[in-house]
């Protein structure tokens, strides 16, 4: 299983600093960095897929689109965010798992990253953008 962001790359390290609230970035810039982080793995994904390997990816492009669109920034619409993902291999299957924000908050480590806030993950935020 591959998890995104891939924090081992220089782009991933910039994303990690942002998620840990150690740096601030414009919403468009951080979205593009998330896309670039996935693109860093594109050639390897295509090679593995061509060889018949099944890839399981945690927080792939649909996750990035949903998180950015949930911010409600007018120029970062869901359609615009999707358009930036066009160079990535399309997913054959997307599994969207749901859990209440309150249940997530009860898990260990919750709240350590920027988007791990009950307010953001409620119906007015991330859950509202999934529709």
Automatic annotation (TrEMBL):
Keyword Nucleotide-binding on entry: yes
GO molecular function: ATP binding; dTMP kinase activity; nucleoside diphosphate kinase activity
Thymidylate kinase-like domain segment(s): 3-123
The entry's keywords: ATP-binding, Kinase, Nucleotide biosynthesis, Nucleotide-binding, Transferase
Superkingdom per UniProt: Eukaryota
Broad enzyme group: transferase
Any one GO BP annotation for this protein: dTTP biosynthetic process
GO cellular component term, pick one: nucleus
Assigned EC number: 2.7.4.9
Keyword DNA damage applies: no
Pathway connected to this protein: Pyrimidine metabolism; dTTP biosynthesis
Pfam families assigned: Thymidylate_kin
Family label: Belongs to the thymidylate kinase family.
Protein name: dTMP kinase
Organism in which the protein naturally occurs: Volvox reticuliferus
């Amino acid at each position: 299983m591959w998890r995104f962001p891939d924090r081992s790359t220089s782009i991933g390290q910039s994303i990690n600093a942002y998620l840990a609230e150690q740096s601030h970035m414009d919403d468009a810039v951080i979205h593009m960095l998330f896309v670039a982080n996935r693109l860093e793995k594109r050639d390897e994904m295509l090679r593995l897929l061509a060889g018949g390997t099944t890839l399981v990816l945690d927080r792939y492009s649909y996750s990035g689109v949903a998180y950015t669109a949930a911010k409600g920034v007018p120029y970062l619409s869901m359609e615009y965010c999707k358009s930036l993902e066009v160079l990535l291999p399309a997913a054959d299957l997307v599994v969207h798992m749901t859990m209440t924000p309150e249940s997530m908050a009860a898990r260990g480590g919750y709240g350590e990253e920027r988007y791990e806030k009950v307010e953001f993950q409620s119906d007015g935020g991330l859950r509202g953008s999934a529709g």
